[in-house]
């Protein structure tokens, strides 16, 4: 029975975490990169830019098995893979610590961490990446116990498989190579024996074959490559995101490095509080004393992945900290296992209870099961537009545009639309031809600005009737006595808030003249309309607070680091009323009016990606 105990505990953890992730699963499509994955679900062809072939294989299998809408199938695939990662982590942490109970604690500590949970419930590649990282580490530890060529081949196979999902697997190689050199019976000579080099090369070639799917996609492009040399160059450029690497990898300005370190301090507390890193340091010391190669392996993998994430100048850097989070959770196991038997019997259950309490506390802020904002935003944009009555020309924020690709493919295949950049040279002919057959031409606000900023043409712009009310107008319509929460997070550069607007909004909420508004990046105001606010607070860093508004407990938590975070799939914070996530906070203005039970009566956004998109009719000049 004891031989099967780790697998049994792992299965229980898989079942528990599956239930957790499925209950908070995003029900449909999202914006940004997630929408790109969802759009490509079930596609026969991938381009090199799509990359991640193994992830698409997993998603397509889930799509085929469930028959669900592509967006939901891809989200579901992430949840199931994330649960598998937690189950494998039980076995890995038990192998590392020598204790199944400590292994379960490590796995659940990681399962409930904010960033991993957030990536487990949407279509993203990181849950599968963690599965493969755990698999690589597990094969290394099993090889150390019995260092045979067969087990070495399994290590190489696991690494090759991981490369088929995400090229950041390269960050594992320094730790893997050093461990093999330190733990091998022949030292470094074991690794550099001719037979080992040939075996590694052969497995690497086999492991790269999933990318043939992406390579073949080049010949289905509008302009296929002229020859093999051009194809290889185009493939390498796109699959490795060479243009991104030049501007982002190791490109955080030195003057911002201290701010990035402050971000990581915030990030690691967000995942584990200070208890997790403290246990990890103890666990590393314990591991150093009993098995130095394993301690070095954990330390090097943490260091390489952490340094990459700290220096990676990208808008969602927080997801690249995930491998370092994994190491922190993994090292908590040896710390717990190092306790004497009698004390461990008390400490481990206490730790498990504390982890469960933290999961319970985090649950509302990570629940996206009712998040239909992307569909609502684009349905509003496409209202009244179909291939018989009108054509829509868009110029959108890239995250919204990615959502538009999915929306037009799966939700509204009857929608006639194009990006303005694709048709701008023929705009006059497009307008003339559509008017001739009785179709309107409708453009988004940004597209209207682009057209009005160009040379005079034979058209004019007219705002459509029934445009959405502004946030200020919506607030003025609320009856006195309505509970509310308003959050302002410094908008992205492409959005703006008119000077004095915040004072007008605050005045409308309080029915009084407000003389000043905090000038900080993280500001929130909450209370009841028609009276002074119960809370108005501004800080230069993320904060959280709990208040009671007319008997309703309300938590306001701001969960992002605005100096770097431009993309947060979970939102940049939450307003939680009575354990219900009433508002997902975004950059810019986020507002919610609350019912007495904490349900959202009305949510509104401004100066951010969920701000209603104004539309204009393009009309010919007679």
What does this structure look like?
By secondary structure, the chain is an alpha+beta fold. It folds into three domains: 2-366, no CATH class; 373-457, no CATH class; 471-606, no CATH class. Helix content is 54%, strand content 13%. It is built from 26 helices and 14 strands. The strands form three sheets. A five-stranded mixed β-sheet has the order 2-1-3-14-4. It has a five-stranded antiparallel β-sheet with strand order 7-6-5-12-13, with helices on one face. α3 (53-66) crosses α4 (70-97) and α17 packs antiparallel against α18. The longest helix is centred in the first third of the chain and has 28 residues, at 70-97. It is globular and about 85 Å long.
Spatially, the strands of the biggest sheet line up as 2-1-3-14-4
- First-residue to last-residue Cα separation: 86 Å
Structural class determined from secondary elements: alpha+beta
Regions with little confidence, pLDDT below 50 for 5+ residues: none
Strand segment count: 14
**Helix share, percent:** 40-55%
* Tally of separate helices: 26
Biggest β-sheet description: 5 strands, mixed
- DSSP strand content: 5-15%
Radius of gyration, in angstroms, nearest whole number: 27 Å
- Mean residue pLDDT: 91
Shape annotation: globular
Total number of domains: 3
């Amino acid at each position: 029975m004891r031989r099967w105990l780790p697998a049994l505990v792992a299965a229980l953890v898989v079942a528990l975490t599956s239930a957790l992730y499925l209950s908070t699963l995003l029900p449909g499509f999202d914006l940004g990169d997630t929408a790109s994955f969802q759009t490509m679900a079930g596609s026969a062809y991938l381009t090199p830019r799509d990359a991640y072939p193994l992830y698409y294989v997993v998603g397509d299998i889930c799509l085929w098995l469930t028959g669900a809408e592509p967006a939901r199938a891809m989200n579901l695939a992430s949840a199931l893979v994330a649960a598998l990662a937690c189950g494998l982590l039980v076995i890995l942490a038990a192998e590392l610590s020598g204790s199944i109970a400590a292994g379960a604690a490590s796995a659940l500590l990681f399962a409930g961490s904010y960033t991993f949970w957030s990536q487990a419930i949407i279509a993203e590649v990181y849950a599968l990446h963690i599965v493969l990282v755990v698999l690589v580490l597990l094969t290394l530890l099993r090889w150390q116990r019995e260092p045979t060529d067969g087990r070495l081949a399994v290590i190489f196979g696991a690494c090759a498989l991981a490369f088929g999902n995400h090229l950041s697997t390269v960050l594992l190689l320094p730790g893997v190579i050093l461990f093999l050199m330190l733990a091998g019976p022949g030292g470094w000579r074991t690794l550099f024996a001719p037979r080992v080099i040939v075996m590694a090369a052969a497995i690497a070639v086999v492991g790269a074959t999933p990318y043939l799917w992406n390579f073949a996609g080049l010949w289905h492009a509008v302009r296929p490559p002229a020859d093999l040399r051009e194809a290889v160059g185009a493939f390498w450029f796109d699959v490795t995101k060479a243009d991104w690497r030049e501007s982002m990898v190791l490109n955080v300005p030195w003057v911002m490095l201290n701010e990035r370190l402050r971000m990581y301090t915030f990030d690691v507390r967000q995942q584990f509080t200070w208890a997790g890193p403290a246990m990890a340091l103890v666990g590393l010391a314990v591991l150093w004393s009993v098995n130095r190669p394993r301690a070095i392996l954990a330390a090097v993998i943490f260091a390489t992945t952490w340094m990459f994430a700290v220096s990676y100048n990208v808008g969602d850097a927080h997801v690249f900290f995930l491998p370092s989070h994994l190491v922190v959770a993994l090292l908590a196991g040896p710390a717990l296992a190092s306790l004497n038997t009698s004390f461990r019997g008390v400490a481990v259950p206490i730790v498990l209870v504390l982890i469960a309490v933290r999961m319970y506390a985090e649950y509302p802020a990570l629940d996206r099961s009712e998040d239909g904002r992307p569909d609502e935003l684009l349905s509003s944009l496409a209202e009244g537009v179909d291939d018989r009555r009108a054509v829509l020309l868009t110029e959108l924020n890239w995250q919204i545009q990615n959502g538009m690709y999915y929306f037009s493919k799966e939700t509204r295949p009857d929608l006639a639309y194009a990006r303005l950049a694709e048709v701008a040279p023929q705009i006059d002919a497009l307008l003339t031809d559509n008017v001739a057959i009785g179709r309107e031409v409708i453009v988004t606000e940004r597209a209207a600005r682009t057209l009005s900023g160009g040379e005079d043409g034979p058209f004019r712009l007219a705002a459509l009737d029934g445009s959405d009310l502004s946030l200020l107008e919506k607030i003025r319509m609320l009856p006195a006595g309505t509970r509310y929460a308003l959050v302002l997070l410094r908008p992205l550069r492409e959005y703006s808030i008119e000077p004095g607007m915040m004072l007008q909004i605050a005045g409308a909420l309080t029915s009084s003249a407000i003389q000043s508004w905090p000038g900080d990046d993280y500001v929130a105001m909450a209370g009841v309309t028609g009276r002074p606010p119960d809370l108005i607070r501004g800080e230069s860093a993320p904060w959280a607070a709990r208040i009671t508004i007319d008997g309703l407990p309300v938590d306001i938590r701001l969960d992002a680091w605005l100096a770097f975070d431009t993309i947060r799939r979970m939102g940049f914070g939450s307003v939680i009323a009575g354990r219900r996530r009433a508002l997902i906070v975004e950059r810019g203005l986020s507002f919610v009016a609350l019912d007495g039970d904490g349900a959202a009566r009305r949510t509104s956004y401004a100066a951010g990606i969920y701000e209603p998109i104004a539309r204009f009719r393009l009309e010919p000049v007679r």
